[in-house]
Amino acid sequence: xxxxxxxxxxxxxxxxxxxxAVNGExxxxxxxxxxxxxxxxxVREGTRRLLEAxxxxxxxxxxxxxxxxxxxxxRLNPDIAIMDIAMPGMGGIEAxxxxxxxxxxxxxxxxxxxxxxxxxxxxxxxxxxGFLLKNVHGQELVNAIRSVARGExxxxxxxxxxxxxxxxxxxxxxxxxxxxxxEREFDVLRLAARGLPNKEIARRLGLSIRTxxxxxxxxFQKMQVGSRTEAVLQALRRGxxxxxxxxxxx
Length: 250
Prior knowledge:
Helix content: 40-55%
Region (Disordered): 1-24
Protein name: DNA-binding response regulator
Order of helices and strands: EEEHEHEHEHEHHHHHH
Largest sheet: 5 strands, parallel
Strand order of the largest sheet: 4-3-5-6-7
Domain HTH luxR-type: 174-239
Shape: globular
Number of domains: 2
Radius of gyration: 18 Å
Distance between the termini: 52 Å
Keywords: DNA-binding, Phosphoprotein
CATH topology of the largest domain: Rossmann fold
Pfam families: GerE, Response_reg
Low-confidence stretches: 1-27
Mean pLDDT: 80
Strand content: 15-25%
């Protein structure tokens, strides 16, 4: 059974109107459904209370092990799984890999006390969307959850570059972007690969932020991923973009 498993009803799938407007538009903001996976009950309780203070975030389940996290993700399909690395039984890396295999649209955000580069690269290869240390302030975690939900990256630039170089050093047959993405979707993906926030992507392409969100959602759907980080790494792996495409020349 799940440790202190808490589930919410389907009302969490509803949307609410965000107060911010872009080009006169009001965006519909969906409540972000979160799974918490950590073997420390106190950490889960504190994180849950922090997140439940936010109107656009809802904790749908908690898990004390990797096995529980995978089972909860398979049943509930949360938007984001907040994952610890070191847990009894199945660890966070394997749990991330299995969650991504069964629930590709669930984005995994790692919250850990470990910052060893080998762990981080292994987590990225397993499909993690971002990484934060447990010494972050509460608002930083909330902002990271919202960023991942918007399709933005939550990762140290230096680590991202190392991971990209690692992928481009492998031999993979190139896939034409037009085989999978529209021209405009590829433009958005290429700018996302440079680490630009959605607002800047919108400015450079002359689009509204809502349209950028829509393009990212289509990219994630077509590539069967749950985050920008995964989409960019997969595009590199497939040869759709090159390492040069990740450098911002403006």
